[in-house]
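fold-stage: in
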Amino acid sequence: MGRVTVTFQPESIQAEAQSGEKLIDVAARAHIDVSNLCGGQGVCGRCRVRVQKGRLSLTDKAIGKLSRKEIEQGYTLACQAEILDENVEVWVPPESTTDVQIQISDYLVSAEESAPVAGHDYEPGPIVRPLCEKFYLELPPPSIDDCLSDLERVYRALRKSIPEFPFVQAHYSCLWGMAGLFRGNDWKVTATVNLRDADYPTIIRLEGGDTTSANLGIAIDVGTTTVVAQLIDLRTGEILGAQASHNSQARYGEDVVSRMIFACGPAGIAPLTEAITFTINSLIDSLVKKHKIRHRDITSIVAAGNTVMSHLLLGIEPCNIRLAPYIPAAARFPQFLAEEIGIKANPQAFLHCVPCVSSYVGGDITAGVYACGMYEHEEISALIDVGTNGEIVIGNSEWLVCCSASAGPAFEGAGIKCGTRAILGAIEKISIDGDRVRYETIGNQKPLGVCGSAIIDGIAELLSSGIIDQSGKFILLDHPMVQVVDDVPELIVAPAGESASGEPIVITEDDISNLIKTKGAVLAAVRVLLKTLEMDFMDLEKIYVAGGFGAHLDIEKAIFIGLLPDIPKERIRFVGNSSLAGARHALLSTRAFHRMEELANRMTYIELSVHPDFMNEFVAALFLPHTDVELFPTVTGKLKERQNGRPVQ
C-alpha cells in the first residue's frame, strides 16, 4: 500500500495518507474540520467535498446521498471516500466545515459572590476561597529551641494563614529538594495549596520567594459540539481571557451516542480522550501565548460537561450509559492530576470535574443550576438547556427535579434539508412580510443554510402568515415563495442566486415535521415534570434558557410554536453559557464546588423513557403550539386575530 499526498483547498494544506484510508480521517489528522454528524456512517450527508484532481474510491452510500448534479461536479462524502494509489486534491466547501459560532459569555449573577458576570465585561467580586491558593511564608530558621522539621515549619505557618483548615498535608513530591530550597531562599517560600478536601488541604508545590502573583486557573465548558476555556486570576477572580473551539471528538460522531458506540468498539476510548485533550490543550496554548504566561502558573482546572463528555475526558468507559438501566461508571469524580490526563498545566495542578446527576443530566447542568441561583430562592424556577438532549430542571431552595429528553439534532441543523450549525453564513433570523421573505446571516455572509433559531423563526412566520396550519402542513401553495419539489412543499428562504452554494435554501414540510418532534420532546419533558409536581406553566416564576442556542432565540416565536411555555416573556431569561459560569464559580470558591456536589445529590432524576405520561405528552405536543389550546392562550389569541383578518403582532 503506497503513501500519497492529499491537498485540502481552499487552505492548500497538504497531508500524507496511505491508500485505503478514509478521506475524513486524513482531514482530521491535518486538522481540517469537516462536519461529521453521523460519526462516519454516511447517513447525514454533511461531509460533502469536491474532488478537483485525482480520484477517490466511492461507496454506494456516498452516491445515495448526492444528487446527479453533485456527482457530475465531482462531489463525494469524505467519510465514504477512500484514498487510492495517487495524489488527490479536494475542495472543502464552507457548508461542510464546523466553524461554529460559540457562546463564550454568560449573563448571570453568582449565588455567593455578588458580582455580575458577562464574558469580558465581568467585574470580579470578593473571592471566598479558590480551589487552589498560594501562600507566601516567611519561616523562622530552625534553632536548638525550635527544632521542628522543615515540613512541620510549613504546616505550622499554614495553620496560622488558614486557621479554618487545622490539618494540612503535602504531596510527596514537595519533599524533593525542599531542604536546599528553604536554605537557598532565606526561608522565604510560597506554598501552593489545593483546598478541595476541606479536611486535609494538600500542599502541591513549594517555590522559593514570593510567587503569589502567578496563580491562575482554567474554567472549561466541555461541550459535545464546542469547548470553551476561560483563564482566571485566582487572586482576584478576574477573567483574563477566553478561547473557544469545536470539539475534536466530532470526527467520531457529533452526538454522545455515536461517540459511545465508537468508544465501546474495537478502537476503544483512547482516540476520544486524546481528541478532547488535544482541543483543551490547544485552547490553553492560545491563552498562554496571548497573555504571555507560563503553563506552570496554571495551578487548578475545573471542567463542566455532560456525563458522557466527563467520562471521555477522564478516560472512563461510558458503555453502560446507553444501556438500560443507564448507569454511569461515576457521577462524582475524584480529582485527577492534569498531567495524568495529558492536559498542559503545572505538573501538580489538579483537574476537577463538576459532579453529574445521572447518565443524561451531567455536570454542565449542575453547574448551570448553581450559576443561575435557582436553588437559593423560594420561587419556583426552571432551567432549560436546549440541544440534542433537552435537559430540564425545576425547583427552588427546598427541592429540585430534573430529566433529559432526547430532543434530536434538528436544533443543530441535522435532519433538515438545508440545515447547518450556527456557522458563519448560517441564516439565524427569518421574517415573512406578505410575498417577501427576509433573512439575516451570522457575520453578514452569503447564506449557507438555516440554523436552529432560524428554523424556529421560519415556522412561527409560516404559521402566523397562514402558509402552514397548526399541524405543520402547507396550505397556501400559491404563495410566490412556496414551491413543491418531489411532492414536498417548501418555503424558499434564499433563492439560488443569493446563496453561497448556488442552490436555493429552503425549509421543507419534512423539516417542519422534524422540528415539531424536537420541540415536542422538550415541551413534553417540561409538562411531565410539572404534572409530577401537580403544577402548571404559570407556577414557574422564572425560566432560564441556557446554551448558545438560547442566545439567538426569539422568545415570542419560541412560545408561538410551543417550544417554551406560554408565560409572560419577562419571566424568561437567557443565561448564555451557564456551564462555563458554574465551572468558573467552582474554580474560585471551594464552597461553590462543594455546593455543586450537594446540588447533584439533591436533584431527583426522572427517567422519561419509562415514564407512563411521557409518550402521551409527546404526542399532544406534536402540534403548533399544542393540541391543548388552553395551555397557550396568547398564541391562540394571535391565531384568532389572523383568522379574523387582523395582523398578528
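fold-stage: in (second)
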Amino acid sequence: MKKLKTALLLLLIVLAGFITDAVSQEIPFGKNGMVATAHPLATEAALEMLKSGGNAIDAAVAAAFAIGVVEPDGSGLGGGGGMLVYLKERHESYYINYYARASENASQAGYSGKKDAFTAKSICVPGTVAGLAMAHEKFGSLPFAKVLEPAVRLASEGFAVDPTLARLILDRIDAISTDTATMKIFLEDGFPLMEGDLIVQKELARTLSIIASQGPEAFYEGPLAASMVKGVADRGGVLSLNDFSSYEAQFTKPLHGTYRNYDILSANAPQSGLSLIEALNIIENYDLQNAPHYSESAKILHLMAEAILFVYADRTAYLGDPRIANIPISALLSKEYARERFEHINMDKLDPPRYRDVVEGNPFPFLKESDKHMTDDDESMYDGHTTHISIIDKDGNSVALTQTLGLFFGSGQTVEGVLFNCAMTNFSYYNKKSINLFKDGKQSRSSIMPTIIIKDGNPFLIAGSPGAARIISTLIEVVINIIDYNMNVEEANLAPRFFLRDSEDFLYLESGIKPEVRKKLEEMGHSLRVYDGIDLFFGGVQMIYIDPENGMYYGSADKRRGGNAVGY
C-alpha cells in the first residue's frame, strides 16, 4: 500500500509539472524581441521591422501606422496619442506627446457637448503623423518609407474584419452613418460589414503613400492638408491650414516615480501618468505583499478604491495642459503628500458616503521650489476607444505607445481616407473653474498613460491600456498584480478588475471578485455594478514582462479584446 501511495504521489508530481509547463508555454516569450498589440496584423508589422534589423522605435512606428488601418475604430492618422521610449544602453527615457490640439478657431464652431460629438465640430488638430515621425527621426534606424510599408499594404490590399471590429461597426452604426465617406468604408449596400468581410481603404492607402514618399510634412502642408481642411470645413468644422502647419509634437521627459524600489516612468501632463504614480505612492504605505488579493478581500479592495478616488479627485482639480495650467507636479508625485492622503483613508467604510463628494487634497505645501515657476470637470465619460502597443527589441530598447481617436470611430468624419478624432469631447465646458476648461489652441486632459517600469536600470514591465477613464484604475491594478502579488503577465491580465471615480455613483466590478467580497463592500457603503466574466469595459492591456533573472521577454495581450503578443 505504501509503495502504491508513493507511486501515485510521484505521478501527481509529474502531472503537475506537465500542467505547469503547459500553462507557461501559453505565455508568448522570446529573447530577440517581443511585441504586444491589439491586432495581429499590427503585431506582424512590428515584427517585420525587428526582423529587418530595425529597433523598437521602428517597430512601434510601423505598428502604430498599421493599427490605424486595421483597428480604425480606435486610432489612425486623424487622432493623437503619446509614446514613451526607454533606451537601455544609455539609461535614458523620453516622452513624445502628440495628442490632438484644439483649433485656433475652435470656439467659432459652436461645439455643444454630446450633441456634436459625431460631427466635424468635435475635430481637433490631429497629431499622430507628427508624433510618430518625431519618434522615428530621433530614434529610428530604418528608412521612414520602410516603416510605413505594412500600413500602405494593409490599406491598399485590405484585411478581413475581425469579431471585435464587426461588433463595433454594428454597435456604432449611428456614428458611422453621419458621413458618406465613412459609410463607404464600413458599410456595403447599406449594411454593416461582418466578420470575415474585406475592408479595402484605397484613399487611406493613397494618403499613407504620400506621407511615405514626401515625408510627414506632406500631411500638414500642401495639397493634402488643404484638401483635408476643406473637407472638414464642408462638414461644419473649423480646422485651418495654420492649425495643420503649426502643429508640433512635444518632446519631453516622462514623469518619474518609485514603487517598492522599482522606477516608474509614465506619461507627462496633460496625460495621466501623474495619477498612476500618485496612486502607487499612496498604496505603498500598506503592506500588500503580505495581504490577500483585492479580489478576495473587501478590506484591500476598499483601500485601493479609496486611494483611487483620491487620485481621481486630484486629477480633476490639478491636471490640465501644462502650457496653460499651473500643475503642482512635484507635490502630487511626492511621498510625503501621498502619506498625508493615505492617512485620510477610512479603512472601515466609504468616507465620504458618495464618490462625488470626495475632495481634492492640498499638495501645494509639498511643492518643490523648482516647480513654482510653472505657468498658469467634466471630461467625457463616454466609452472612449484607444489602443496600446508595447515593444522591446534585442538590445532592451523599449516603447510604450497609446493613441486614440477619442470615442469609437472618433467624430465619424472621413476626408482623404482619414477618419478624424472627436477630441473636443475631452474638455470641460460647464465648470468655469476647471483646469481642463476648453480654450482655443489648448490640449485637453487625457487618461492615456503608456508606462515602462525599470528595475536596476533594466526594463521590467512595459504596459498600457485603452478604456477612457478606466485606464487609470486598470494600470494600477495590473502593476500591483505583478509587483505585489508576483503574478505572471497572463495572470495579471486575467485577474478581475474594478473601477470607480469621483464623477461616478457606482463601483464597477468583474464577477471574478468573490461574492462574499461584494457583500462586504456593500456593507461598507459601496454601490455595485457587476459585469459577468471579463469585460472590454475594463480596458485591454498590452504588456511585456522582462525576467530580471534570465532577461527573457514574456508578452500578454488582454483577452478582453482582440490582439496578440508575439516574441522570437
